[in-house]
Amino acid sequence: MGEVYWAWDTQLDRPVALKVPRFSGDEGDELARRLLREAKAAANLNHANICRVYDSGVEAGTYFIAMEFIEGRTLSADITPGHLTSERRSVDLIRKLASALAEAHAKGVIHRDLKPGNILVNERGEPILTDFGLARRSDVAHDVRVTQTGMLIGSPAYMSPEQADGETGRVGPWSDIYSLGVVLFELLTGQLPFQGSVVAILSQVMLKEPPRPPRPSPLRPDLDPRLDVICLKMMAKRPQDRFASMIEVEQALTKWLPSASTNWVGFRVARN
């Protein structure tokens, strides 16, 4: 979409991240709308795990968003072959992101592009959700969508089946739940549930269920089977088979944390 610069706010004497779209050809109007939509979506959200937006506008013909500067790295930097994030750390990260997304959903904002590259981890190890460039409001009837039916929105490997199908009208908070489930899957196993070319991934997302390895998962023999259940429920093919809300996702993960070594009644994973 563009570039992000480290900049200095001379009025408030603080560093900021300055996002500037990179225009080429005829895409300028769309990128400008996307930038403005990101600013509006994030500016009204107030959560410790969401990157704050300070300002947006046009200066000498250049569009920009001034955002909170996060010292750290993207979550994708923590996901490398052969390196598995601990169960507790994975659950804690996803639980906090679910809380942040519950705040967004409560205000009618659907992210639609959840992936490790859009999640920053600050110096304290806290996950910060950013890049609402594909976000849209779900509670405004006259919302003008930049993307239309038949157009893909999001990143294929993390895309929900309804997104992969190109039906923007079917995309809702449940779509973010699916994508966050893919991030949890990747943290726990070091692998994506679906792999291959873009066409192959989209085909698998739409036509196949996520892998259902016997517990403990062969991808991670020591994996707590209860996390398998939570992850698979988040990634259920049909939206109605997923958790009903991000609040439910947060509650399930919060319940797991102190009971990691005790008996726990899991969720039934619905199958088609």
Report what the structure shows.
This protein is of the alpha+beta class and 272 residues long. The protein has 2 domains: 2-68, Phosphorylase Kinase, domain 1 (2-Layer Sandwich); 72-258, Transferase(Phosphotransferase) domain 1 (Transferase(Phosphotransferase), domain 1), CATH 1.10.510. The protein has 7 helices and 9 strands. The protein has helices spanning 28-43, 87-106, 161-164, 173-189, 198-207, 225-234, 246-256, and strands at 2-9, 14-21, 53-59, 62-68, 72-74, 109-110, 119-122, 127-129, 136-137. It has a 4-stranded antiparallel β-sheet, covered by helices on one side. It has a 3-stranded antiparallel β-sheet with strand order 5-7-8. β3 (53-59) and β4 form a beta hairpin. The longest helix has 20 residues, at 87-106. The model is unreliable at 139-152, 212-216 and 262-272 (pLDDT under 50).
> Into which percentage range does the β-strand content fall?
15-25%
Distance between the termini: 37 Å
Helix tally equals 7
Quick one: CATH class of the largest domain?
Answer: Mainly Alpha
- Assign a percent range to the helix content: 25-40%
CATH topology of the largest domain: Transferase(Phosphotransferase), domain 1
Largest sheet: 4 strands, antiparallel
Structural class, by secondary structure, is alpha+beta
Quick check: average pLDDT?
A: 80
> How many domains?
2
Compute the gyration radius: what is it?
19 Å
Low-confidence stretches: 139-152, 212-216, 262-272
CATH level 4 superfamily of the largest domain: Transferase(Phosphotransferase) domain 1
Outline type: globular
> What is the CATH architecture descriptor of the largest domain?
Orthogonal Bundle
